[in-house]
Amino acid sequence: MFDKVLIANRGEIALRVLRACKELGIATVAVHSTADANAMHVRLADESVCIGPPSAAQSYLNIPSLLSACEITGADAVHPGYGFLSENARFAEILRAHGISFIGPSPEHIRIMGDKIEAKRTVSRLGIPVVPGSDGGVTSEEEALGLAAEIGYPVLIKAAAGGGGRGMKVARDQGELRGALSAARGEAKAAFGDDAVYIEKYLATPRHIEVQILGDGKGGAIHLGERDCSLQRRHQKVWEEAPSPGLNAAARADIGARVAGAVSGLGYSGAGTVEFLYEDGNFYFIEMNTRLQVEHPVTEMITGIDLVNEQIRVASGAPLTIAQEDVTITGHAIECRINAENPETFRPSPGRIEYYYAPGGLGVRVDSAIYPGYTVPPYYDSLIGKLIVAGKTRNECLMRLKRALGEFVVGGVETTIPLFQRLVQERDIMDGRYDIHWLEEFLARQTADQS
Predict the structure, then answer these.
(1) Which of the following CATH numbers is that of domain 207-450: 3.30.428.10, 3.30.1330.10, 3.40.50.1380, 3.30.470.20?
(2) Among 41, 196, 322, 398, which one is least packed by beta carbons within 10 Å?
(3) Which residue numbers are catalytic?
(4) How far is CA 126 from CA 190, 226, 261, 266, 298, in A?
(5) What confidence score (pLDDT) does residue 76 get?
């Protein structure tokens, strides 16, 4: 096991990793920008190192500063959390070259799955169903038009190195395809430094389903069921739940077994998530995230398995503590991402937390690093907490969520809590009838009703 882990992140995920390390008896190092000097994870860590000014590029993305922090403190491993450098193959390689363990998969697997085209080719070879589309990058307008005619409109143009909806465009006919191709390339180049794009069939009303996996790096792998992440705004997840209300037991077992088999074939190490669009009983691979997900607590609540603990153990060379037959799905769980944003305009709302009351009770978990007097900085993602609730049934879970949202109080900044209070009362949400477009259509109706 490691002696000391440096946590290369901030906010609630840094605190989540810190707690797992403490439970394993591992010393912790918090890194922080000058804007995060008073952050909760900094206060609770055994050691802390300032790695730069507020700008993420000069602090949390600054590999030389992070490496120096490891050397100064003697950390023998780094946990990247999610975001920032968590899927940066070069960072993992540099750590390895300096004899420091990266708590995550190999640089090779990060690199393969970070390239959407190569990822699609790889999982297809391993038996995972993919969306019909180009085998590689589309190099000309003529090629794009020919492919679109073959697979049928509408089509989706996506950045090969993309994520978060950037470099993604829908084209419903030839005219739209020409403009969308150029726009997607421009966005991809600006966001990722790579203008490569590919084309795939656009699915009209799919659900977003992701399968949580753990690999031991030696050919062993298990799945921990799926999560439904269909409630999204601008391709960003807002509400996640497990199990999915849109899957039956046979579909769940089939896709879980397929994914675990593919990950085993890769020799993958650590936690990962294989994401799909699901429509008309069919799964279509979209990407694999080679890191811990924001929504990992949903899976922890219904399986009782500590994913961060397993990540750390596997990275240290230890085996997984559970086998597939040990994984039991019990009840239902839902997570709401609480952001410091206006709940109607989604404008960021940084500022000082004047007062704070987190809900509690049976089946209620809050992952947050805020406290009264803490100042939410304007430099980073606006996520300030996650409310996760669990119940024996989905209905019990929804009622518990409604109660918990009513107790959740954050003063001094605006939050998205009122949005979830509206959502939990919507009939479609209560019945589990929603797809990846539902939330944006709901928000558009709300705006129209107010105008």
Answers:
(1) 3.30.470.20
(2) 322
(3) 291
(4) 33, 19, 8, 8, 27
(5) 97
